[in-house]
From TrEMBL:
The name this protein goes by in its record: Type II secretion system protein N
InterPro entries, per the entry: T2SS_protein-GspN
Sequence similarity: Belongs to the GSP N family.
Keywords of this entry: Cell inner membrane, Cell membrane, Membrane, Protein transport, Transmembrane, Transport
Family matches, as Pfam families: T2SSN
Lineage of source species: Bacteria, Pseudomonadati, Pseudomonadota, Betaproteobacteria, Burkholderiales
Cellular compartments annotated: Cell inner membrane
Top-rank lineage group of the source organism: Bacteria
Amino acid sequence: MIRRAIDAPVRHSRWAIAGALVGLLLAVVLFAPAAWLASGIAKATGDRLLLIDARGSLWTGSARLVLSPGAGSRDASELPERLGWRLRPVWIDGAVGLKLVLDQSCCIRPDAAVTARLGISRVNLRLPDASPDQPWIRWPAAWLVGLGTPWNTIAPDGQIAISAQQFVVEKSKGAWQVQGMTQLELRDFSSRLSSLSPLGSYQLNLMGASTPQLLLQTQRGPLQLSGQGSLGARTRFEGEATAAPGSEAALANLLNIIGRRDGVRSIISVG
């Protein structure tokens, strides 16, 4: 009888401690400050993508979006408007997931959401569907100057547009799979290294496959870019840049910087 009388308060005490810990964990999750998100992104990108002056919480907040060459650098570039976000738990195809909506009136469609479906040993991330005519994201190309070399030398101008069609990235049992396609366009690109403006418009496609494929092509303009590659254990890309007839002299300096010169061509090689 005496032992039972002692055990009961002990059990009650353990449940009280467990309940307090669960409550504390929920409070941390629900009220996690936006600064925690900013710190995580900075660490994951080597201080190249920064959320400055982050306000609000992990779930609803805003910040200034900045590109930087890395830790300790004073060179950086900032988008003209603050980036807002809303992150919510959702139910996706019978599993717990997250829905992220970004809000930046200058640059991002407000009706497009990124979704992530979470499971045991599996993560499924899907970008919002958008056509090149009505892309999901439009950023000024001049923003890239904040990354430092070679962008601060090229000093690009124009627009970066991102769109996707049924683009899904899934990690299952340690293996990555990519489905669908996403496009990154550089529209009406120009550079201070050339008197020609614009130099052209270009599209880089990422196509899902057992080994995702990259395809670079020129849409228009005197600077001709082309190439292909793949994403796998190593990123590989082989391409070239040339000048359209009559533009060789005006583009000579830029071609010397873009890649390794081989006659009239400039060779671009990654991996």
